[in-house]
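hiii so my PI (J.) wants the whole complex modelled not just the main chain, which honestly fair. so below is everything: two entries, each one labled with what it is. i double checked the lines twice but i was tired so who knows lol
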Amino acid sequence: MAKVAAELKYSAEHEWISTDGSGPSVVGVSAVAAEALGDIVYVDLPEVGSTVTAGETCGEIESTKSVSDLYSPVTGEVTEINDEAVGDPALINSDPYGAGWLFKVTVTEEGPLLSAQEYAEVNGGEL
Amino acid sequence: MTENYTALYEEHKKLGASFTDFGGWQMPLKYSSELAEHHAVRKAAGLFDLSHMGEVWVSGLEAGAFLDYALVGKLSAIADGKAKYSLICNADGGIIDDLIVYRFGDEKYLVVPNAGNAPTVAVALAERAAAFNVKVEDASAITSLIAVQGPKAEAILLKLTDEAQHALVTGLLYYAFNELTVAGHNVILARTGYTGEDGFELFVANDAAASLWASVAEAGAEFGIVPCGLASRDSLRLEAGMPLYGNELSLERSPFDAGLGGVVALKSKEGDFVGRSALTAAKEAGSKRKLVGLKGLGRRAGRGHYPVLKDGAVVGEVTSGQPSPTLGYPVAMAYVDVEHAEIGTALDIDLRGKAEPFEVVALPFYKRQK
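here's the output for the full assembly
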């Protein structure tokens, strides 16, 4: 069963966000979502310096089988994107909570977020 | 929705498959990574459960004449031990299904339709049989079908057959079959497939399916065989330019639109067959749109039902598309207005509002080295 990292918070749209409070937060997609998508072959991320809005689309993730919108779990300014994941989107499958992170954002407002426990209960992941 | 489970369902569960509903059957979508499964078939071997496919036996004195009437091809002309790709059309010339016909003798044939269409095809064949001295028996519910596909497929089959029967395996030509013993089970072994690689399809009774599956997996381990789901089956057949019923083929498309005019025996069959007059008219009228291959010049893939554009105007629609794992660029099949269907024509696919450049290329996208 797909892993749900306990230290992160999650959106209903399957993005995770680190919330350690120091500096920009890191956003990625959950292992549950990565597994459901299948092998990811393309990722389109917001531009550095752009503003993302909680609950709105900010990019796309394409797997061999389908295309899905990427939703921002928070509102804020994008400070960095993961060029390695853009170049090698398979990282999102192999290490969704680590090397497969997507972008960093200076959060001005959080969207509705779930705890790892809540997310796992809804989506059937393993803590 | 899903009502049917193959005899191998428990094996798939043990292997950790994720499942999908396909044609009313609960089938493995993938076991691990669909890309890894795809590459295994191109480089080594893959093991597929295709038991959702139908098996309809046609037997009797007029079996050949009946199939010539019921299908668009000249099936009576197949040699014993050979198979032929054909279509079953309705009176309007629309495609009810594509299928493979195996000839065991002039009074015995096996028809293999697609999963979702198998009941419809079995009923249509039974109806069309009324005026013929034939028996039509739907054996789909008692027959399993396992495919071993890839460059190592023959070596794996040789491990599972007696030396005395090895020549029957190695000598088997593409679209030919033999009845022989594989891993102790009575099997119809056909050199057919839907992947663009060398390989075999094995028809076996349901009660032997799990044992045969395990034997193939064990014998293939040293060659790198992996179980493969429908996701890789779809990407493999797309690279090989093979149509999928429901995507490229439907009641609304004629065989000529789909590039399958050669399957329709308008000249070589003298007698009437279902769809003949409509197909004759369709051939004379010519196609407005035809099926083409599209190669992506960027990284984004077109998907089913996305519009195809020429200078911003819609000139077609994608039927299947995805990134090609083997070739490394996006590929798609699409119906395109004939005036834009020439090889080399630059077209765009409307990717959710963004025009992405593609080029018309010859099918298949991928051809194995022989």
